[in-house]
Design goal:
about 250 residues, alpha+beta, glycoprotein, elongated, four-stranded antiparallel β-sheet, Ig-like_dom_sf, transmembrane, membrane, six-stranded mixed β-sheet, single chain
């Protein structure tokens, strides 16, 4: 029994596993799987994909890199940090990448779980009024997700939903707008609707007064009409006066 325990302890010291880090990338872009120097001399290093697919093999002593044909022109290897950069990402590049460094008496393993996403598109935000009330039904759609919510006048219900793949859709109120936000770990888009629209849909609850400029416009119009009337009266009086004088002059002669 003691011999077995010693063997298990010895094997555990030969392999150093630091766990896996989550990394996100966009289709067509690049991402770096950043390594930290193990702090010890080593002979060789390997990058592998999903536990079995070789990406590259590096012999430090000979300064030689053996790159898999499937990754030619698609990866860059930093000989100082041992980091790997993947270029022109595609959806099928998603998976587990591991670097295995063969030290003198042990192995150092570091994992990176890469998820590649398409940039999201702007969500579609629509609303429909209930003809019998001030209730408005909101619908927000993006990708394969959809959210339904309701507003009464300018009070709206906020909601959020997230898919297992990390795509999120949310409805929220920000300042004077309703915001439909569509996002994933590498991008986001939003569509907004002004809350003021719902005030006009429900005038009995919250009547909107006409702008001050409209009242001012009516007053100016009345003043102009009055001035025109006065001018017309003055002109008419002048014509009548001239006419009466002419008649008086004819009578005198």
């Amino acid at each position: 029994m003691e011999t077995k325990l010693q063997l298990i302890f010895t094997l555990s010291t030969l392999i150093s596993i630091t766990g896996s880090s989550d990394v996100f990338g966009a289709v067509g872009e690049s991402v770096q799987l950043e390594m930290q120097n193990p702090g010890a001399e080593f002979k060789t290093l390997s990058w592998i994909f999903n536990g079995s697919k070789n990406v590259l093999y590096y012999n430090k002593k000979n300064n030689d890199i053996d790159l898999s044909p499937n990754y030619r022109d698609r990866v860059e290897f930093d000989k100082e940090t041992y980091s790997l950069t993947l270029k022109n990402l595609q959806k099928n590049d998603s998976g587990l990448y591991e670097v295995i460094i063969f030290l003198r008496f042990s192995r150092y393993i570091k994992g990176f779980t890469l998820s590649v996403f398409d940039p999201v598109k702007s969500p579609l935000l629509t609303f429909q009024q209930n003809p019998d009330s001030c209730n408005v039904t909101l619908t927000c759609r993006g990708h394969d997700l959809s959210i339904g919510s309701s507003c009464y006048n300018t009070t709206c219900e906020e909601k959020e939903v997230t898919s297992p793949g990390g795509v999120a859709l949310s409805l929220s109120v920000l300042d004077s707008s309703i915001v439909c936000n569509h996002s994933n770990p590498i991008s986001w888009k939003k569509t907004t609707v002004e809350l003021e629209i719902f005030r006009y849909l429900c005038p009995s609850e919250d009547a909107v007064s006409p702008p001050a400029g409209e009242s001012a416009g009516v007053s100016v119009c009345l003043v102009k009409t009055g001035l025109y009337s006065i001018t017309l009266i003055i002109l008419l009086s002048a014509v009548i006066t001239v006419h009466l004088r002419e008649r008086c002059n004819k009578s005198s002669n």
